[in-house]
Amino acid sequence: MCTLSEASSSSSRLLFRQLFEKESSTFTYLLAYVGHPDRPALLVDPVDKTVERDLSLIKDLGLKLTYALNTHVHADHVTGTGLIKGMMPDVISVISKASNAKADLHVEAGDKIVFGKLFLEVRATPGHTAGCVTYVTGEGADQPHPRLAFTGDALLIRGCGRTDFQGGSSQQLYKSVHSQIFTLPKDTFVYPAHDYKGFTVSTVGEEIKFNPSLTKDEGTFQGIMENLNLSYPKMMDVAVPANLVCGLQDLVAKV
Ligand SMILES: [Fe+2]
């Protein structure tokens, strides 16, 4: 982790932190461009329970939070985006257009989210949900190398998100991962939305080789996904409605 932050910051002035919320095993990522006095920053997949921690870190590091991004409408936790906007109304909330969720900015494949001289590129990776996207750091001499891919639940370390609800499709997920993530340079870091085994990061090359289900042919993959027999997520009935309105921002006003 330390090595990556230092290596990237020397070439591209990226400040990068991986944060963890233990109840839902969710990773939140903080990225900032520190080559300009404004130090613009963004969060990927903030969680309501850890918003205070994240904003305090942002303050400590002297960053200006500009964007709060979600990779998709989560079913296992409430996004922190609504709380962040309640405290910092100028922060722009971002989610995909295909998610049908409320946000200030709806993104589609090919869009760029710019912070300072750095940017994230949006790749559509539906399959876990219909609106899942992967955010990938830019390509170019002044962008971080290796690249960083924030894959949400489309690709996990040695796994992937379930495909049995929220418009999920195992066929679509297989296609998304193979065409949009496995085509990235092999040294691209894979930073997922969750890990349940203690892993923190992988690479595209590593997952192409060792992912137990996505390395199989499409038919076998579909068979695996259809026979997982997973239980109904305990937070689903709370999390999905809240996340469709950006995580409580409007609900709070009505309570
Ligand atoms: Fe999810």
Q: In words, what does this structure look like?
A:
With 255 residues, the protein is of the alpha/beta class. Helix content is 27%, strand content 24%. It has helices spanning 2-12, 51-60, 81-87, 170-181, 204-210, 218-226, 236-244, 251-254, and strands spanning 14-21, 26-33, 40-44, 64-69, 92-96, 105-107, 112-115, 118-124, 133-137, 148-152, 189-192, 202-203. The strands form two sheets. Strands 1-2-3-4-5-6 form a six-stranded mixed β-sheet. The protein has a six-stranded mixed β-sheet with strand order 7-8-9-10-11-12. The longest helix is centred in the C-terminal third of the chain and has 12 residues, at 170-181. It is globular. Mean pLDDT is 92; it is low at 5-10 and 251-255. Bound molecules: fe (ii) ion. The site of fe (ii) ion has 6 residues, from loops. InterPro entries: Metallo-B-lactamas, Mito_Persulfide_Diox, POD-like_MBL-fold, RibonucZ/Hydroxyglut_hydro. One of its GO terms (molecular function) is sulfur dioxygenase activity. It is found in: Mitochondrion. Residues 25-194 form the Metallo-beta-lactamase domain.
